[in-house]
Amino acid sequence: MSTAFASAASLAAAIDHTLLKADMLYGDAERIAAEALARGFRGVCVPPCHLGRVAAALKGSAVRPVTVVGFPLGSSTLYAKLFEALEGWRLGATELDVVINLSAIKSGDDELVRREMGEIMAKTPECGHKFIVEVGLLDDRELSRVCRIANDLKPRFLKTSTGMLAPPVSAAEVRKLRERLDPAIAVKAAGGIRTLAELEALAEAGASVFGTSSGVAILDSYASGRDTPRPA
């Protein structure tokens, strides 16, 4: 039985039910929205082209429509990201998961990252913002610089990873973020979370929201008191 969550409802309320596959179908978007409503998930995170369908399905509920910006590489220009963020808001997103410009951080161009984060937040104030920093691709100095920028700008979240570019997120990576961030900024863990045990370890390390496509199986594991094996 879980030690990190007091109830199945509190676990569900921490999960962004996620599907970001390039070949997902319209019906997949409708299915995960229905699952989120039935299970009480925190949000549903889908690519922008599926967002309108998901937002319509979730309308009037407490489940948040979420989409990605600059996904998965983060290498779009600032204005391309701004357009994508505004389009996400127009289509119904209440939260935006934005991949930072990793090339800029690695090249020492902190001002570009600061400007990008600041302008996206300023232009879409109706949305919550989670900036994806791809912890597994940054060294400690680079991560510290990203966190200093975030501590100045105060987005709602920093998010560990896209799940596309680095190995599955680890508790150590979550701790690295949590140790460097202002307490007012939450950590979203994402990337390869498949089991209840993995999610609990990330929660204990300091994450409060979790992006996973395995939310239904994780909730079923919680209810049964037994974790499911990690899929091959």
Can you tell me about this structure?
The chain is of the alpha/beta class and 232 residues long. Helix content is 46%, strand content 16%. It has 10 helices and 8 strands. Strands 1-2-3-4-5-6-7-8 form an 8-stranded parallel β-barrel, surrounded by 5 helices. Helix 8 (171-180) runs parallel beside helix 9. The longest helix is centred in the first third of the chain and has 14 residues, at 26-39. It starts with 7 loop residues before the first helix and ends in an 8-residue tail after the last helix. The mean pLDDT is 96.
Treating each run of at least 4 consecutive H or I residues as one helix, how many helices? 10
Instruction: Note the run of SSEs as H and E.
Output: HEHEHEHEHHEHEHEHEH
Q: Work out the radius of gyration.
A: 17 Å
Distance between the termini: 24 Å
Query: How many separate structural domains?
Result: 1
Major sheet, described briefly? Answer: 8 strands, parallel, barrel
Strand content: 15-25%
- At CATH's second level, what is the architecture? Alpha-Beta Barrel
CATH homology superfamily: Aldolase class I
Contiguous low-pLDDT stretches (5 residues minimum) are none
For the biggest β-sheet, the strand order reads: 1-2-3-4-5-6-7-8
Average pLDDT reading = 96
| Helicity, as a percent range | 40-55%
Shape verdict: globular
CATH fold descriptor: TIM Barrel
What is the number of E strands?
8
